Amino acid sequence: MTGNILVVPDFLAYTIGIVVYFIGMRLNDWVPMLRTYNIPEPVTGGILAAFGALAVFTVAGVELQYELETRDRLLVYFFTAIGLNARFADLLSGGKPLLILLCLTLGYIVFQDVIGVVAAQAIGQPSAIGVLAGSASLIGGHGTAIAWAPEIAANHGVPNALEVGVASATLGLVLACLLGGPIAKFLLARYNIENSQPDGDLVGIPHEREDTERINHVSIMAVILVLHIAIIIGYLVNEAIGNAGVRLPLFVPCLFVAIILSNTVPYILPRMHWPARTRALAVVSDFSLGLFIALSLMGMQLWAIGDLAGPLLILLGLQVAATVLFILFVFFPLMGKDYLATVLSAGFAGFALGATPTAVANMTAVTKSHGPAPTAFIILPLVGAFFVDITNAFVIQFFLNL
Description:
Elements: E1 5-8, H1 10-30, H2 32-36, H3 41-60, E2 63-66, H4 69-85, H5 88-93, H6 95-122, H7 127-136, H8 141-155, H9 161-190, H10 217-243, H11 251-262, H12 265-268, H13 279-298, H14 309-335, H15 339-353, H16 356-370, H17 374-386, H18 388-401
Helix pairs in contact: 1-3, 1-13, 3-13, 4-10, 4-11, 4-13, 6-7, 6-14, 6-18, 7-8, 7-9, 7-18, 8-9, 9-14, 9-15, 9-16, 10-11, 10-13, 13-16, 14-15, 15-16, 15-17, 16-17
């Protein structure tokens, strides 16, 4: 412990994250409303843990900081597993939804900054704060907000840009986790939608479902071995891409390497038992995603938001209202008003206000209750991984230049 900062080592944080997940799972069992609105278990536990850390800070003045290296590895595991489950047939069938999702997402980046800038000017704040509380921190997430903060602080009259960006991204992440499930529930009931694809688990195994496929240490080890091979190749590809001057998150090349392996190796080696779309792989996917979300949320430093509460809450309130209205009246109708559109609507709520893993967690919670939607788990990460960050950089720069 240094001063009033208590640093929790990575292994201990990892262990606490598992405990937090189980607490969320128990609370979801005890509180029917959490299940009714498809609130993911790690979200329930993670938010409770974040408020617990806030209580420790308020009462004892001790600031908890978690080392989260394991959390970042879990994200790579999860998206590599998504890639292993992908079939080219799914990608081809998802061509039209992918194109529509891409256009709507890129358009919404601009819309989000328009709302932020106009609202900031209306309440007497610098336009740059509207950008920070817009696509820089919401669709962009913590990484984008932190990356742009020095530029905005130095050249756009917002000396506390880092604090504003991080606070906005943090609140956005919480709201993103809480909105997806209720939106999906409303759409399913309003339009009497049923799932037309009864099989094809990628993630989201219901805890109460009976296991019809044998899972043992051998099947889990086989899954981990294949995941590690894909991640090693993905790492080498990422290094090569980085040396060429292109920076991508590690999970992006790992995702694509896994897709290529899953669509070639089973045909080259037909006698090999490939773990794609197996219960063992789904178990690893669920574990990785659930623990990633729990660790992310329990590590939020809510006390850092207090001083920015007034204007920031107004801006984020408008962004939330705009996101909900956009999903209900634009996104869902254009995506087809079917079950896939419903699952993607829950995911888009997580994505537009939080991050790609939040979007996937929202979709997972919906599919646990209402059945699989494998195409959604392929096309949304593709849009989030490749197109959003590049477009967002140009949009942010455009609005700052105004």
